[in-house]
Design goal:
By secondary structure, the chain is of the alpha+beta class. The protein has 8 helices and 8 strands; from the N terminus they run αββββαβααβαββααα. Helix 3 crosses helix 6. InterPro entries: Aldolase-II_Adducin_sf (IPR051017), Aldolase_II/adducin_N (IPR001303), Aldolase_II/adducin_N_sf (IPR036409).
Length: 247
Amino acid sequence: MNYSKEEWETRVNLAACYRLMPLFGMSDLIYNHITARIPGTDDEILINPYGYMYEEITASSLIKINIKGDVLHNPHGEELGVNQAGYVIHSAVHGARHDVSCVIHTHSRAGMAVSAMECGLLPITQTSMRFKDIAYHDYESVAIEMDEQARLVADLGKQDAMILRNHGLLVASASIAEAFNAIYWLEMACRVQVDALSSGTKLIMPSEAVINRTHHLYQPTVRRPFGLMEWPAMLRYLDRRTPGYKD
């Protein structure tokens, strides 16, 4: 199939994002999803085939669907399709947030642990202060019911990250590069919190003024959109290890 330059570039970057996730311990067998909006479209997104592990994803293996769930191009035919839970969560965000180009959802060990903590994500490190205003969505069982979409979108609001209670993590960003950076740092914040709380030692909580200042400095309009500068290095990292993502 012939792809536009914009779609192929998106496919390559999205495949790279999939390949990076297991290398940093953020994959879950054949489950979870990363979606990206195809530039120049309002309702066309790319998603992984349900049955592939992240390390198997290539640019040409991604499935193109629209927000309504119609399959526009599936290179796997009848063999593999799209996970319903992935469609429900990701299409909800893409449909409501036109400023979002990429959505990542994970079931990481640390992310699930923090999602089950009543305290939520604590601003105990510089990394976690980036997510001071993180959103929360209460667990409603496996996300296969379409009526959950409205509540999920309402809980996310205008935030770029959300903890799905008793479930996992979600980020919604303006680009694939920014989304990977956000989920990486959110995952690190969760891992540190689990480590710190398990130590049994009393934690130091920075002042509200310091937390707010640090959070402000991580906003994309203050210094830079984090992830864009880092992305070429991430692609070089992949090229040294698993260059097949470009196929």
